[in-house]
Design goal:
about 400 residues; alpha/beta; 6-stranded mixed beta sheet
Amino acid sequence: MTDNKKNLALTGGAAAAEALKQINPDVMPVYPITPQTPIIETYAKMVADGEADTEMIQVESEHSAMSATVGASAAGARAMTASSSQGILLMAEILPIASGMRLPILMLVSARAISAPINIHGDHQDVMFVRDSGWIQIFSENAQEVYDNTLIALKLAEKVKLPAMVIMDGFQTSHSVENLEILQDSIAKNFAGVYAPKNYLLDFESPKTFGPVSLPNSYFEFKRAQIEAMDSVVGEIEGVFEEYRKISGRNYDVFEEYKLEDAERVIVVAGSTAGTAKVAVDELRDKGEKVGLLKIKLFRPFPYDRIAQALQNASKIAVFDRTVSFGSNAPLCSEVIQIMSTIPGKKYTVQSCIYGLGGREIFKEDIKNVFEGLEKENVDSVRYIGLK
C-alpha cells in the first residue's frame, strides 16, 4: 500500500458515501428507498459530523429529488442524488430533462426489482427501464468498483456534459462488507477538481436559457447533439481511466476480459455476478476447458466495436440478464446479438440467460451448468436460471 491510499472494510453503500465525502458536492437532494438508503444515510451523517459541507435537501419524493438536482445543476452547482427501483421510475419523467439539458448530474443507484409484486431485493429491472433516457450507465462488480466508479463517473460526466448513473447490485453489493482501498482525501479531491460550469442559469453576465420550447424546426438538432455527446463517451472515458490509474494503480476499461483470449464458450454479464462467474471460469479452466468471461462495465453508451473485437473468437455465448424485456430479447442479450451479426462470416450461438430476478441467488454451479449446456449441439435460445 502506497502513502496515498488506505484500506477500509465497507459496504458498497458506505463506499459510495466515502467517495461522496471526498468529492463534497455542493447540493444533494435525497429521498430514502431500500436498498439505496444507506448511501444517503451514511453521507448525511458525514455532513452532520462536519466531514463535508454539502447542502443536503430532504425532499418529499424521488420525483422531487431529481427535480431539485436538475435545478441545482442548472444553477451552476455540482449536484448529485441517489435512488432505487420505484424511486427511479417515479423520477423517470425528469431523467431525460437532465440529459436533454446536458447537466453532469451523478446518481448513485442500488439496483432493485420493480413492482408488482412488491420486492425490495436486487436485480437490474430499474436501470434497464430507463436505459434510453440519455444517461451514462456504469456497472460495478463490488464495493471497490463502487468507490472508483463514483470518482470516474463524476469526471466523465463533467467532461462530456451528460448525467451518469453508477450502478451497484442492491444488497449483494450495497449491503455487503468488503475490503477495499481508497485514496487519501486530498488525492481524490484533486482528481475530482473544482467544478466550473461553462453554462449556468446564475451567470448574470451571460444569461442562458435552459429547457426552452423547441418546435419541429429545432428539436431534432438538440437530440442529434445529445447523440454526438454520448458517442464521445467511449473515447473520453479511456482518458479518465488512465488518469485514475495513475493515482490508484487500478486499471479499468469499458469492459473486463477474463481469460477470454482463446475462449470458445463465453459468458457476458454485468454487476456482482461477474465475481461468481470468475470462480466458475477458474475451476473449469483447471480442467482444460476453454471458457471465459466478458464483464460489462459501461452499458450506456454500449461500446459495440470494442465488444465485437473481444468476442470475435467465441463461438458459443451465454448472455446473463438480471432483467426481462417483455415481448423481446433481454437488453444485454439484444445488444450482443446485434454485435455478433456484424462480424463477417462468423458462426456463433447466443443464448439468453435470465437470472436473479427479485434478488434470487445465483451460484457457481449454476454458471458451470450454463457453460456445460453451451457444449450441446442444440442450445435453447432462452434459459431461466434457478426458476422453480
